[in-house]
């Protein structure tokens, strides 16, 4: 499922919701466009291991308040994103940690109503087509 969220007054489109992922990822190019100070990045020296066993270095992590909404209702939660420099057609990958905190993609709003996050099928198709064109990253970044 691909959705749009709001972080720090930025509407971030092309957010992949992946219930198979054990982490929430903010891709480096998206982070740079948000103009958040690099001083807010917390060190993290671990690597992520992908589905096929490939290892991916991280650039640290950052905690950001993220707002999910439908037409009338919303909910904001603090999400810890791993920062990853990788070629992808998405801006963010939301995994099980954030999905579980939202209690799936339906969630109670501040006033107690049930809000639902809806899929944007047009953007899903755009991301899929773009992902077919992405070259694999040989080296993620240099220090």
What's the quick description here?
The chain has helices spanning 28-33, 96-102, 121-133; strands at residues 2-7, 10-17, 25-27, 47-49, 55-57, 61-69, 74-84, 92-94, 106-108, 114-116. The chain is an alpha+beta fold and 143 residues long.
What's the topology here?
Blueprint lengths: L1 E6 L2 E8 L7 E3 H6 L13 E3 L5 E3 L3 E9 L4 E11 L7 E3 L1 H7 L3 E3 L5 E3 L4 H13 L10
Parallel strand pairs: 2-8, 3-7
Antiparallel strand pairs: 1-2, 1-6, 3-8, 4-5, 6-7, 9-10
List keywords for this structure.
6-stranded mixed barrel, 143 residues, 18% helix, alpha+beta
Strand arrangement in the largest pleated sheet: 1-2-8-3-7-6
- Number of separate strands: 10
Structural class: alpha+beta
**Major sheet description:** 6 strands, mixed, barrel
With helices defined by DSSP (H or I, 4 residues minimum), what is the helix count?
3
First-to-last CA distance: 34 Å
Q: Give the helix level as a range of percent.
A: 10-25%
Rg over alpha carbons = 15 Å
Overall pLDDT: 83
Low-pLDDT ranges: none
Backbone shape = globular
Structure description:
This protein has 143 residues and is of the alpha+beta class. It has a domain at 2-60 and 96-133. The chain is 18% helix and 36% strand. The protein is built from three helices and ten strands. It has helices at 28-33, 96-102, 121-133; strands spanning 2-7, 10-17, 25-27, 47-49, 55-57, 61-69, 74-84, 92-94, 106-108, 114-116. The protein has a six-stranded mixed barrel. It has a two-stranded antiparallel sheet with strand order 4-5. A hairpin with a 2-residue loop joins strand 1 (2-7) and strand 2 (10-17).
């Amino acid at each position: 499922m691909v959705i749009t969220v709001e972080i720090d007054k930025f509407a971030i489109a092309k957010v992949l919701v992946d219930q198979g992922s054990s982490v929430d990822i903010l891709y480096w190019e998206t982070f740079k466009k948000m103009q958040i100070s690099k001083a807010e990045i917390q060190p993290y020296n671990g690597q992520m291991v992908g589905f096929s066993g490939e290892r991916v270095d991280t650039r640290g992590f950052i905690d950001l308040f993220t707002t999910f909404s439908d037409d009338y209702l919303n909910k904001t939660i603090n999400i810890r994103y791993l920062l990853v420099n990788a070629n992808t057609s998405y801006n963010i990958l939301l995994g099980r940690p954030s999905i579980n905190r939202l209690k799936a993609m339906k969630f109670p709003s501040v006033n107690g109503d049930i809000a639902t996050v809806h899929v944007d099928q047009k953007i899903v198709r755009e991301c899929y087509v773009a992902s077919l064109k992405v070259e694999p990253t040989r080296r993620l970044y240099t220090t």
